[in-house]
Design goal:
The radius of gyration is 20 Å and the shape is globular. Helix content is 54%, strand content 11%. Helix 11 links the parallel strand 6 and strand 7. By secondary structure, it is α/β, with parallel strands linked by helices. The chain starts with a helix and ends with a helix. The protein contains 17 helices and eight strands. It has an eight-stranded parallel sheet.
Length: 351
């Protein structure tokens, strides 16, 4: 299948994305608007390049914080919600669970309740205008330490929203072992709040084991270093604990992956682990969800049937009720059948 026909086919298929950072959907046009509002002058080409230049994961985290610093009020988030809506439509993402990191904004003086108000208003608008569903997970963040994570969770509980359904642990993996955040995650589980965490992205498999043991998460963000531990691979297979795989993001960090054709997604998938495909930070890594599937098809020789399985896995790993998961997965099967029939009919008419 050519790239053009692949993209045309995938556009017809409903998808989910469950590992994407909200602020990293911001478009270059929105960054220019935010910069001018923040500094009172146009964004130069050199300055714009600085927002997207980083040598490693820690450098990326600093660039991410730099972008967050452009926002002056919670209402500025509306620009990014417009970008998110465009992104969802372009990739035919019908259900999305996105991370949002409030700490840097709270440190700037934003009120958490005002942030929640903007989130509620904009997600409601996206759903009314497009019929697509968006939910947020609050990143309690390794970057700012355990006490800050507890403060974030306290705000989460005090100002609840139907659109914010859980917490996640992101940030630089080397700067905060899971053990530090055990109390926050224990409280969340007792409150029936969904919990996820990044692990096995920048550190070895022990980081994944520790995340499972101390945080008892429902999904692992990345988790690619599981390939170095057969016992862990078997555990992930038997429990079907989902992995949120972000191929291009892993390639960017070059910590464990240096070529797309050598990405461990193939080993993880073949082992029977519940793997899902995501972008992590699409604008920063110049990638879209459809691009990620194309890379798997082209570089890792995933068949269309395997890609169908990955797309259905994306819905299976969500925090939706089982009945809705089944409905979405049935829609994927129906869309695949319809798209395949349309392609066959087009090929027949051409011949």
């Amino acid at each position: 299948m050519t790239k053009t026909s692949f993209y045309s086919f995938l556009q017809k298929i409903p998808k989910s994305e469950i590992h994407i950072h909200f602020e990293a959907v911001v478009s270059h046009a929105s960054i220019k608007k935010l910069y001018k509002k923040r500094f009172g002058k146009p964004l130069s080409a050199h300055a714009q390049k600085s927002y997207f230049s980083y040598p490693d994961l820690n450098g990326f985290v600093q660039a991410f914080l730099k972008v967050q610093d452009l926002f002056l009020t919670p209402d500025d988030f509306s620009l990014v919600f417009d970008d998110l809506k465009t992104y969802l439509i372009k990739n035919n993402i019908v259900y999305c669970e996105a991370f949002f990191s409030p700490t840097a904004f709270i440190k700037k003086g934003f009120k958490y309740k005002d942030i929640v108000s903007v989130i509620d208003r904009n997600i409601r608008q996206i759903e009314q205008e497009t019929g697509r569903t968006v939910r947020f997970l609050i990143d309690v963040s390794r970057t700012f330490g355990a006490q800050n994570a507890q403060d974030n969770y306290r705000a989460f509980r005090e100002h609840q929203s139907p659109y914010i359904i859980g917490i996640g642990l992101g940030g630089a993996e080397q700067k905060g072992p899971p053990q530090w955040f055990e109390p926050v995650f224990k409280a969340a589980r007792e409150d029936s709040v969904h919990v996820v965490a990044h692990a096995g992205e920048d550190l070895g498999p022990q980081s994944i084991w520790d995340t499972i043991q101390f945080l008892q998460v429902e999904r692992i963000g990345h988790g690619i270093t599981a390939i170095y531990d057969k016992k862990l691979m078997d555990y992930l297979k038997s429990t079907q604990l989902p992995l949120e795989i972000c191929p291009t993001s892993n390639l960017f960090t070059k910590r464990f992956v240096t070529e797309m054709k050598k990405h461990p997604i193939r080993q993880l998938f073949n082992h029977g682990i519940l793997t899902t495909i995501n972008t992590d930070d699409p604008v920063f890594f110049k990638i879209s969800l459809t691009d990620e599937y194309w890379n798997l098809y082209r570089s890792l020789h995933f068949s269309m049937e395997e890609i169908r399985t990955l797309i259905k896995n994306g819905f299976k790993a969500t925090f939706l009720p089982d009945s809705q998961k089944e409905s979405y997965m049935a829609a994927v099967d129906a869309a695949f059948a319809e798209a395949a029939a349309a392609d066959a009919a087009a090929a027949s008419s051409e011949s």
